[in-house]
From TrEMBL, chain A:
Functional note: Iron-sulfur subunit of the cytochrome bc1 complex, an essential component of the respiratory electron transport chain required for ATP synthesis. The bc1 complex catalyzes the oxidation of menaquinol and the reduction of cytochrome c in the respiratory chain. The bc1 complex operates through a Q-cycle mechanism that couples electron transfer to generation of the proton gradient that drives ATP synthesis.
InterPro entries (UniProt xref): QcrA_N (IPR045603), Rieske_2Fe-2S (IPR017941), Rieske_2Fe-2S_sf (IPR036922), Rieske_Fe-S_prot (IPR014349)
Principal location listed in the UniProt entry: membrane
Pfam families: QcrA_N, Rieske
Protein name: Cytochrome bc1 complex Rieske iron-sulfur subunit
Entry keyword set: 2Fe-2S, Cell membrane, Disulfide bond, Electron transport, Iron, Iron-sulfur, Membrane, Metal-binding, Oxidoreductase, Respiratory chain, Transmembrane, Transmembrane helix, Transport
Domain Rieske residues, every copy: 252-343
Organism this protein belongs to: Mycetocola miduiensis
Automatic annotation (TrEMBL), chain B:
Reactions catalysed according to its record: a quinol + 2 Fe(III)-[cytochrome c](out) = a quinone + 2 Fe(II)-[cytochrome c](out) + 2 H(+)(out)
Coiled coil ranges: none
SUPFAM superfamilies from the UniProt entry: Transmembrane di-heme cytochromes
Entry keyword set: Cell membrane, Electron transport, Heme, Iron, Membrane, Metal-binding, Respiratory chain, Translocase, Transmembrane, Transmembrane helix, Transport
Entry EC no(s): 7.1.1.8
Protein name per Swiss-Prot or TrEMBL: Cytochrome bc1 complex cytochrome b subunit
Organism, as annotated: Mycetocola miduiensis
Presence of the UniProt keyword ATP-binding in the record: no
GO molecular function: metal ion binding; oxidoreductase activity; quinol-cytochrome-c reductase activity
Main location: membrane
GO CC aspect terms: plasma membrane
PROSITE patterns, per database record: CYTB_NTER (PS51002)
Origin: domain of life: Bacteria
Amino acid sequence: MAQDGNSGTDIAAADSSSTGHGTEHAVGTAVVARDAVQNPGFPPHRARVTDLDPKKEKNAERTVYTLFYLSIVGSVLAIAAYMAFPIIPEDIGSVRMNNLMIGLGLALALLAIGIGAVHWGKALMHDQEGIDMRHPVRGSEDTRARAVEIFDEANRESGFGRRSLIRNSLIGALIAFPLPAIVLFRGLAPENENPVDLLKHTMWEAGDKLARDPSGLPIKASDVTIGSVFHVIPEKLASVGHSEGYLEEKAKAIVLLMRLKPEDLVEDEDKKDWSYDGIVAYSKVCTHVGCPVALYEQQTHHLLCPCHQSQFDVTNHCAVIFGPAARPLPQLPIAIDDEGYLIAQSDFREPVGPSFWERH
Amino acid sequence: MNTVTAPAEPRPAVPAKKSGGFTAAASNYIDERTSISTAVKELGRKIFPDHWSFLLGEVALYSFVIILLSGTFLTFFFDASMAEVHYDGSYVPLKGVEMSAAMASTLDISFDIRGGLLMRQVHHWAALLFVASIGLHMLRIFFTGAFRKPRELNWVIGFVLFILAMAEGFTGYSLPDDLLSGNGLRIIDGMVKGIPLIGTWTSFLLFGGEFPGTAIVGRLYSLHILLLPAIILVLIALHLLFVVVHKHTQYPGPGRTEQNVVGFPILPVYAAKAGGFFFIVFGVVMLIASLFTINPVWNYGPYDPSPVSAGTQPDWYIGFADGVLRLAPPHLDVVLFDHTFSFGILIPLTLVGVFIMLVLFYPFIEAWITGDKREHHILDRPRNAATRTAIGAAGVTFYAVLWAAASSDIIATHFKLTMEGVIHTLQVLLFLGPVIAYFIAKRTCLALQKKDRSIALHGYESGRIVRLPGGEYIEVHEPVDDFERWKLVSHESYQPLMIRPDSRGRITVAQRARAVLSRWFFEDRIDPITRAEIESSNHH
């Protein structure tokens, strides 16, 4: 049982050792047993029932061609279904029938071919197993020697190894030539914009009215009852067209507005005037990877992101209390105008959304 | 694939048959222009062994063909544009809603083109099957040791295909520009932004400006229908070429050796069975597509950054990547040198990256540990490679925990558990689960080896209880025949590597590491049965 594999290879060669290719048997730490059990060879062939009983053979033949004919029926049914079950505009039931009937016809056509062919192969075709001999994957010694020789000749004839200046300059050129392609990809994004600047600002400005998402109707402080939550966009977002960056602006500017009992809020000294009478506004973009933090638990005052379950405590400046988010949701400082509408005091004081390299 | 062995030498124009009608004439015509008879001679009777587990790779291949067919149909109608349109199709609830042309054309395919919904569903179901079958195929390869020499590179190709299949899946999932796919892209955007140094700009370039922009669907479309399928096609061709060059592996069995391959020839049996199997796979996908809805984008509506529904889920194969994000603990942003390091994203990504690398390079690691340079064409029964099987079980468990984490909210609501409880449990399981799985699998393998050993030596329990004259009851054991026994005894074991100084009398660090790993792999082992043991047991 020692590691000197060569002594055992005469036996092992028969079944478990490598395909011999004339080189040393590198068995590593494999234990090549001296008296391993011998391969008993092939077991006697067992005839199938279709080989023994002509009636069964006939049955199998009938099954196979019946399946193939059935497949033709399936194809015809699928074509018929295309015509018999058209889609009637605004009738959802007709879509379902169209899908179902064409699909069933096609499924029958395909399955019948498949099952028929496999049955033919298994029950009727010659079932004596064949044997192919394996050869080592590596080329024969002659082939390998010739390959080396060819490279040698090529090297000699071209001077690839000898003329090092040519070789090295070529390698340099080959490394350099794809570089312009990388530069070309700069054009993937607008060239006069810098993502860092864009990410640090949203469209909120001092005096912008807070409006309902998606209707765009401004919100009065008196509309916001205790315990309620509003999905908010800037009122002026409604005037931005889709081609003018509506979705891009919205993706940064969405806000959640909640009213708590003022005594429930634990506010930092310098942020005391960011809320109005228990009404607070926070960015709706999760600081984890940017999903909308859409779920508000009224009783606990927790916000929950449905994507990765980060939880934020609204009473405590939306500090992260659970989940993978790293930072609190940025707060939007709000106030009310003369008519009692909620307005922003300014933009967010920090970038909204996921962390990025240049964020700090 | 079928021109591999065709030699380049010119051949005389001698057709196989002079007589005969159209078939002979046509064959001659083609052969005189392609030398195809050489390919038929080399490959026509090529032997493939039979086993149900060899079908998993076939399922993957066939679902790819189905994806190509159904996908081509979809390209005729899909409009990969994010230009804003007002939907005016048959689906009443969304009439007049502003959405991208991509979403609108997806709805048109679903509701206004006969058979369009069917093709969409065939495409999506086949894509799910594609990734699933590659995954199962890889598990089969892993647990049977089919990745060993000479097939290590084909393992790498296959694994790259697995990654590319997931990339295809994700790009395709994003194309309809519905609410769920938009949220998926938003998550990708957030992850990309978390990459140090290049993250912000990478996201900016990827989306052609700020998220979501108006470029991403078109760009993903080029990747989805052009670049990725082309690479996949080339790699599949290479993968199959290697299968032909190496010849297929086979399970141990009487008459099967490392020098032969036993099975059925391509013509006619394998052509019938494999060809028929393509139609079965296609038929099953078609049946599922006609009966079961998949990805009903009309229920989600067009993408809007604001709404999201609870219980959002990616397609199953992206689950592990979504799950790992959920398991990160809070507060992991660090500001260093005036820059933000988003460890809440970097740590999970690194964890998945390391896992992927370990899987990718496993064949080379194992080869280094065993030092075995021989070709292996007979598959291992998983029990006979106990440590490898245990490592596989640990890997599967690791993946399964990540996958479960992607449904943490659903688990919590469905089983009435707390969200925190589910996450904390999964966080612990992510590290503990693989260890437990490892030990259970290893001990089970060794126990099964012992059972094999006892059956090979003492026969199987016949269920016949006999009372001896002395009053003692025994169960009669029937001996197994030579053919049955061969399956139980025809494997090798490895022994732990002994550290030996090299020619300069030194013991290198690599040597030590290899010895440690080798001991870990092979310390617990059960030697295969020898002839002497069988003979002595026969005397009893």
